[in-house]
Amino acid sequence: xxxRLSLVILLLAMATFSARPAxxxxxxxxxxxxxxxxxxxxxxxNAKEAHINSVRSRLKPSQDDISNFGVLDMLYEEFRQYQSxxxxxxxxxxxxxxxxxxxxxxxxxxxxxxxxxYMSVWQLDDAMSMYRxxxxxxxxxxxxxxxxxxxINLFYRLSLEASETDQQLxxxxxxxxxxxxxxxxGISAPGSFEHEFYNLHITESGGxxxxxxxxxxxxxxxxxxxSDSELAVIYASMGGFANLNGDSQxxxxxxxxxTIYDIRSSxxxxxxxxxxxxxxxxxxxxxxxxxxxxxxFDDALFFNSRMKQSQIGMMLPLLETIxxxxxxxxRSIMAILLVLITLSLCVLGLLFSKLSRRNKRLxxxxxxxxxxxxxxxxxxxxLSSLNVKLKESIELKDSYIMQSLYINTSFLNxxxxxxxxxxxxxKTKGLEAMRFLPYQMGIKEExxxxxxxxxxxxxxxxxxxxxxxxxxxxxxxxxxxxxxxxLSTELRIFALMRLGVNDTSTVAGFLNISPNSIYVYKARxxxxxxxxxxxxxxxxxxIKKP
Length: 546
Fold this sequence. Notes:
By secondary structure, the chain is mainly alpha-helical. It has helices at residues 4-14, 27-39, 41-56, 69-79, 84-101, 104-120, 124-131, 141-162, 167-187, 193-204, 210-223, 228-244, 248-264, 272-282, 286-303, 306-429, 437-440, 443-461, 465-472, 489-498, 504-511, 515-526, 533-541.
């Protein structure tokens, strides 16, 4: 049996240290775990109540009180850090049974229990009165350890009162504390919480560094298996060391860890969460400070510690005020931000309206430009097509000029020779010889030369005409050049069409055939293709020169 806060304060007062530790702790992670544990702490309370009920079920109404003494003592242990009123009730039952039994051992245990209760609620006068009645030699080891712990706490508190008034009495009380610490280490089993925890005081009594103090406790946690309640005490003591060294971050971490284990052990008689709330307030964590002080106040109410209720009750309104001011400040900032955002939205709305109108104008301009661009593209295509045709015409013209010069010169020379021959014939044969002059002019041969000249010139400009023309016709219906390498009459019709000569009369006059023959020739070739007349003509006009 022990009072946890006093244990922490006692070892802090008796330890001396310096320097700052090199340990790294993650405060944010510990606070996140603590917040989750606070949210589910009722689950731990439910488990605690279930355990208490299982212990209470061991009471046998059919047996006498002395037979139930051990169960009542266990119930007191369950309630001593859980609920003060119930602990008081069971301590009274134990005391009444022990007095009635006249059993010195039971009476010593009952008095030690009562002594423990008085210490838990800080009734030092009643505790001292009960201390004087206890014969520790009659106590079993477990109860004796708890008694020694309470004796340490009692004499430490008395030494605090005497430190400013009576130096000799102060030293006597301190000596008593040391003696009881030695007694605990002497009778406790190595590896137990009491042995290892109080042995640290003996180890550190010569003066150790802050680093060593924390390292000893970390080693203790890692080396031995302790209950959640015992771990809470160890972390609380580490928080106290951090406080004396001005190490706020680690102090908050250790108190958070202590509070976590307090919640898990359903301990309501604790100061860790209260200290953590103060630390959060100093660190500017107002929401957490209020949350933790409410947990501390709930613990004080549940445990029914009037002193703590009064202490926390004074702090809670202050924290709520600070939190309210903080929230009000945040709301003021939010209101200012809201006004600024509203103004910004208005400005953005105006800009958006102007941009929308400008975008509409730009869209119209873009549409107009696209239309103009489309027209330019069409005009460019037309010009390109015209340019191609002009280029073809120029090439035809250049070729045809030379051909025409050669043919016409040849024809003139021939006509001149025939005329001289005709004149000579007139001198010798008379006018009768003039009758054969037209037949002697070579008109038929000249027409053939003209056609051959046209064929040669056209095929020079369009050497792929025959292949492209056959591509229009159905398979097996292809056409070919004449044996002399010239074009057939049908092909000349479509060659003239490709050159842009579409007038039937003009084509008929050039080829020296009738217009009806032109239609027949065209129909004959078009019948060899599956294309319509318009598609067929379009494919002819699409034949390009290389």
